[in-house]
Design a protein that fits this description.
The protein has helices spanning 13-27, 50-55, 80-92, 131-157, 166-175; strands at residues 60-65, 71-73, 76-78, 103-108, 112-117, 120-125, 180-182. The chain is an alpha/beta fold.
C-alpha cells in the first residue's frame, strides 16, 4: 500500500484571490493620460445670415495632410517645421489682417476683459496619411498653442504656463483657447 498524499484545501483560494484583487484595485493609482484634447467650435446659429458665415471663413485655417504626407496650411504648401509659426501668426493676427481671425473681447473671471482670437484650426488628413506625419502635425499645432500660452503667462504672471497655479492656468486657457477641429479621414484617390 502506497502512502496517500494529503489534499490541499482549496476552498479558500478563491476568497484570497478576490481579496488580493480588491486590495490592488484600491491601492493602485492609474496615470490618466488625457491624450489629445480637442474642443470643437460651436454649431453655427441657424438664424445667422449667409453673408456673416462667408466672412467667418477668415476664422478657420484648414491644415491638410495628403496620402504622400505633404502638408498644406491654408493655401500654402509647407514643411511641418514651418507650421508652428504659421499657426501662431494665424491665432494672434498681430497686424489685424482682414484675412486672419477676428478677435472678440471676453470677460475672464479673475482677470478682466481680454481680446481672444476666434481662430479655429481644421485638421484634415487622407486615409493614406502616415501615422508619423499625422503625429508630427499634431505636435506642431499643440506646440503653437502652448507657446502662445507661455507668452501670455510670462507677460501677465512672469512664469511659464505649467508653473502657474490652477486658477491662473484656467485664465490662460480662456485667453488662448485650443480650438482644433478634426475631420474624418478622406480617401482623396476616390472620385
Amino acid at each position: 500500500m502506497g502512502k496517500k498524499t494529503p489534499e490541499i484545501n482549496s476552498s479558500s483560494t478563491a476568497d484570497i484571490a478576490f481579496l488580493l484583487l480588491c486590495y490592488f484595485l484600491m491601492t493602485t493609482t492609474m496615470d490618466q493620460d488625457m491624450g489629445l484634447q480637442r474642443r470643437l467650435p460651436p454649431m453655427p446659429d441657424p438664424n445667422q445670415k449667409v453673408e456673416d458665415q462667408k466672412v467667418n471663413r477668415r476664422n478657420i485655417i484648414i491644415v491638410k495632410i495628403n496620402s504622400a504626407d505633404r502638408l498644406l496650411a491654408g493655401t500654402e504648401p509647407m514643411h511641418v517645421s514651418q507650421l508652428k509659426d504659421k499657426i501662431k501668426e494665424f491665432l494672434t493676427n498681430p497686424a489685424d489682417n482682414k484675412n486672419l481671425p477676428e478677435k472678440e473681447e471676453i470677460e475672464i473671471e479673475g482677470y478682466g476683459p481680454c481680446m481672444v482670437s476666434k481662430g479655429v484650426i481644421s485638421l484634415q488628413n487622407d486615409r493614406g496619411t502616415s501615422y508619423q506625419a499625422y503625429i508630427a502635425v499634431q505636435n506642431e499645432l499643440v506646440k503653437a498653442v502652448n507657446e502662445l500660452r507661455d507668452d501670455f503667462a510670462m507677460a501677465n504672471y512672469g512664469k511659464k504656463y505649467l508653473q502657474l497655479d490652477e486658477d491662473q492656468q484656467t485664465i490662460v486657457r480662456k485667453a488662448v483657447p485650443q480650438n482644433i477641429s478634426e475631420a474624418e479621414p478622406k480617401d482623396v484617390s476616390k472620385k
